[in-house]
User: Fold POMP protein from Oreotrochilus melanogaster.
Amino acid sequence: NSRGAASFLKDSIPLTDLSASGPFEGYDLLRRGFTSVKSELMPRHPLELSEKNFQLNQDKTNFDTLRNIQGLHATLKLQMEFRAVKQVQRLPFLHSSNVALDTLRGNDEYIGFEDILNDPSQSEVMGEPHIMTEYKLGLL
Assistant:
């Protein structure tokens, strides 16, 4: 056949057409983990949502105070440092402690619930390391 390999690939069926989609798609346990009914429920108490956003609200208040005291440049510098520190993480299948972020926020001097019994939202992640890394990098 004189058409070459390019025309053969063009005529073949792409793999995305063979995968299930829509209402008949299966749940990918390796990529998404176990499902939790608790996460799908509404907050049980009015303060639960406030507690989930506590660190975000505290950061916003601290930035506003810093901006009023020292000016816009101090807030922008600190936000750039936060953004740079958040990007440094371990591989997807390992828990990242974010020590540098805790140091910037001043949380390294306090002992909290998550230091003793670990944060419940950061439970162990089970899965194949190679698959999880390729999924995080967008190769799958």
Notes: Residues 1-18 have pLDDT under 50 and may be disordered. The CA atoms of residues 9 and 15 lie 12 Å apart.
